[in-house]
């Protein structure tokens, strides 16, 4: 018999040593094996208890579920002060957003808002940014950059800052920019809106865009579509921000 401990194989001249005992290291084969099995069982139990959850392999979720989980993620730490601040911001943007939604495509209400003056520099920069891509894109670039810039900030808040509430406000801002552009589109046929200093009617973005594309008679329809997109984005931002605040409120109650 070969010793399970030291590997010594019992020889005929080892007859003086009791059967079941290793002549080389002196262990009792049966007792040694029982002891090893006992130690192995205890070690396996301890390992299973100490194994962190990160070692548990979860099934791979579909992309849309992973995206929704990321968009619903809450901050690691929630305190009452930051929650109260976010709640006040939410209420302010909620009522401000509804003032744009209920006002419709009205240049006086939209253009008279101070936010129009905030959007204008981004609009003008869009013309410069897209000018290398031709005259059509130069005219379109102002409105295009105006609505895409807040969406870029939204992605930055989601992916880099991991601040979904701030991202929901950026989505609101993109929706407001769609609404901000809608009176400009509706005015394409008439070119009556005041442009920035030094620019005449020939510089009317949407007047030129729709004339170049032969769709000037559809100006009102396009304006309504841009306005509708803005309303939808705002409503999504309301639901998103409200859900995040509700989850934080639940955590605060539990803590």
How far is it from the N-terminal to the C-terminal residue, by CA?
A: 64 Å
Taken in chain order, the helices and strands follow as HHHHHHHHH
- Strand proportion, as a percent range, falls in under 5%
**Poorly predicted ranges (pLDDT <50, ≥5 residues)?**
50-58
Shape: elongated
If you compute it from the alpha carbons, what radius of gyration comes out, rounded to the nearest whole angstrom? 35 Å
Derived from helix and strand composition plus strand pairing, the structural class reads: mainly alpha
Largest pleated sheet: none
What does this structure look like?
With 255 residues, this protein is mainly alpha-helical. It has two domains: 12-55; 79-254, no CATH class. 67% of the residues lie in helices and 0% in strands. The protein is built from nine helices and no strands. It has helices at 29-50, 63-71, 80-103, 107-111, 114-130, 135-161, 164-186, 205-213, 219-254. Helix 5 (114-130) crosses helix 6. The two termini are 64 Å apart.
In a nutshell, what does this entry contain?
Keywords: Membrane, Transmembrane, Transmembrane helix. With 255 residues, the chain is mainly alpha-helical.
